[in-house]
Design a protein that fits this description.
CATH architecture of chain A: Roll
Distance between the termini of chain B: 44 Å
Helix content of chain A: under 10%
Number of helices of chain A: 2
CATH class of chain B: Mainly Alpha
Number of domains of chain B: 1
CATH topology of chain B: Cyclin A, domain 1
CATH architecture of chain B: Orthogonal Bundle
Distance between the termini of chain A: 26 Å
Number of helices of chain B: 5
Number of domains of chain A: 1
Oligomer: heterodimer
Strand order of the largest sheet of chain A: 4-3-2-1-5
Radius of gyration of chain B: 16 Å
Low-confidence stretches of chain B: none
Order of helices and strands of chain A: EEHEHEE
CATH class of chain A: Mainly Beta
Number of strands of chain B: 0
Mean pLDDT of chain A: 93
Largest sheet of chain B: none
Number of strands of chain A: 5
Order of helices and strands of chain B: HHHHH
Largest sheet of chain A: 5 strands, antiparallel
């Protein structure tokens, strides 16, 4: 079982998928289908979606911090135009921006 | 489209955030200490605990408290893992309620 490596680089534009997975997931609905930018690679982590059900969550999977413009997430956002939101998202919830799911 | 988790409330109308300034109760400290110990000893995993909270019915979740959810989630997880026996737990809880010695402070 080979460990996955980072498939995205800082600055890459990514879209958050809605993989339709029931149960414990860590990708809130408000970022799904939204497009953001990879801010950093956080490292490899045991998969919490598996660990929540008594499994080991191995092999570890890549986690990224993704940055969004607030007004890309909230249509009626009335804060400063440059405001951003950052959230950490696991690799399997990401696709390159512009590609169909 | 899978139903939203009860904890997935980002972006929902919330109104003002209630501010409550009070000391942590003794049972709350005790329960958090037990929770931390169970994690350190590897009996429970944070993700499992989060999952048990997410499995609460939406109305029950909405009407519970931070410490109440943590206690409920921990008890459910310990029963699920066979660390606690559900019948023994219920019996003991009823005994304490009946004796009126429940310690809230």
């Amino acid at each position: 079982m080979s460990e996955p490596t980072a498939s995205y680089s800082v600055g890459d534009r990514v879209r958050i998928l809605d993989i339709g997975k029931p149960g414990h997931v860590r990708t809130p609905t408000y970022v799904r289908h939204k497009t953001g930018t990879i801010e950093r690679f956080c490292g490899l982590f045991e998969n919490p979606e598996d660990k929540a059900y008594g499994r080991w969550g191995l092999p570890p999977i890549p986690l990224y911090r993704v940055q969004f413009r607030q007004d890309d997430i909230w249509p009626d956002y009335d804060g400063a135009p440059g405001d951003v939101l950052e959230i950490e998202i696991y690799d399997h919830w990401l696709a390159p921006a512009g590609e169909d799911s | 489209m899978v139903d939203k988790l009860v904890t997935d409330i980002g972006g929902e109308p919330a109104g003002a955030v209630p501010q409550e300034d009070r000391d942590q109760l003794f049972w709350e400290k005790q329960m958090i200490a037990a929770f931390n110990l169970l994690q350190v000893k590897g009996v429970v995993v944070t993700d499992e605990f989060r999952r048990t909270v997410e499995e609460m019915p939406a109305e029950y979740y909405a009407n519970s408290t931070f410490y109440g959810r943590r206690l409920d989630g921990m008890i459910r997880l310990l029963i699920e893992k066979g660390v606690l026996d559900a019948d023994t737990f219920d019996k003991r809880a009823q005994e304490i309620l009946a004796a009126g010695t429940r310690d809230h402070v």
